[in-house]
Amino acid sequence: MGSGAAGSTGSIIPAVLRALLLDFNGVLVDDEPLHLELLLRVLGEEGVSLTPEDAWPRFLGRGDRESFAEALAGAGQPAPSHRLTRLVARKASYYQEAVHRQGYVFFPGALELMREAAAAGLVQGVVSGALRDEIEGALRQAGVRGLVKVVVSIEDVEEGKPSPQGYQLALQLLNSEAPLPARLLHPHEVLAVEDTLPGIAAARAAGLVTLGIAHSHEPTALAGAGANAVAERLEGLGLERLQALYAEASRS
Q1: Does domain 19-30+105-250 have CATH number 3.40.50.1000?
Q2: Residues 5-25: pLDDT tens digits?
Q3: What is the pTM assigned to this prediction?
Q4: What are the DSSP calls for 113-151, one per residue?
């Protein structure tokens, strides 16, 4: 992706970061292992036995509905829509029980980065395969819901990641919901922060600059999946480093 547009004099206009679109599970909230545990619990109740080692690479970063459908199909079981809806609701109930006991656990540095980005005037959104109640609940618990302009959850799209639908919708909402930006946000001015391979694929397919956070995969795997830039973790990242990574990513 180029670093900017060339003017009539041949000069290069540097890329300017104007918005962040953040994944939820695995980027903001440290709950990917919990989701996997509950997915396997529900599947076990349905007579489908999978090990965490088998399930982690297959389902990490994918929505519950797609994960249940694939697991049932692999076991030779029917997966009609009403059954998938019931399984997703059961897993969501188990998840709510867990967070009621322990609260939402944010990754170190996640909330600090959101607050720093907001103070600097960056527009923020969350794009996730999680349910809206889970995302909203976590943001409210942490006191950062007011820093987020748009939330796109799995209920808002027909296809989850790696489909770009969620990111495409988020960009549309950033440009159409009040307060309106002074000028339209373009994909190259938006940094998508993801921790999974399907998430990176979704953001890239939407034309966004991508930053892979190695909370769930090795940095080499994220780079191999096409992340424009990679960081080990959010902790200690800070807005200045984030903007430097964006500038680097915009040139890749």
Answers
A1: yes
A2: 433 334 445 679 999 999 999
A3: 0.84
A4: HHHHHHHTT-EEEEE-SS-HHHHHHHHHHHT-GGG-SEE
